[in-house]
């Protein structure tokens, strides 16, 4: 697990580096918050995923829809923004507050919020009025459906500790996958 986390962190560092694939000028803080958010998600682990094997689920992350080479710059930024917004919303619920260490959770929320602020500025740079419908296009809709499935899963599992652990690992994976944008 430590090797996988190290590999994911390396992917994030490459993706969020100044030479990353998004064309807008993201602040160095955006890079740092991206790395820190993944590290925080790793630290939030409360129980071993081995205890939750019966709760594992394939959430059908829309990898083919969010691969950076498949999207135009404005679409890629919009999809990344949607992923961060949905992650922020997920970890900003009353039920998530009961599941996690409040200090780590608040740090994660702050980091996600900062990344969203940076991407808002970036969206303004690359999106014209003709692009305002991007949030309703295939890739963004796929991300929204993906997160809807996560919310349904949590409800079905009664927001159990294992359900939250499964989601924590899944969000780490999806945010790491988004580094190809």
UniProtKB/TrEMBL annotation:
The GO terms this record gives for MF are: cytokine activity; cytokine receptor binding; hormone activity
Keyword Signal in the entry? The reply is yes
Query: Chief subcellular site?
Result: secreted
Give the record's GO CC terms. extracellular space
Q: Where in the cell is it found?
A: Secreted
Q: Name one GO biological process term.
A: defense response to virus
PROSITE patterns registered for this protein in UniProt: INTERFERON_A_B_D
Q: Which UniProt keywords apply?
A: Antiviral defense, Cytokine, Disulfide bond, Hormone, Pregnancy, Secreted, Signal
The keyword Mitochondrion appears for this protein: no
Q: Which residues form the signal peptide?
A: 1-23
- PANTHER family this protein is in? INTERFERON OMEGA-1, TYPE I INTERFERON
Family recorded in the similarity comment: Belongs to the alpha/beta interferon family. IFN-alphaII subfamily.
Protein name in UniProt: Antiluteolysin
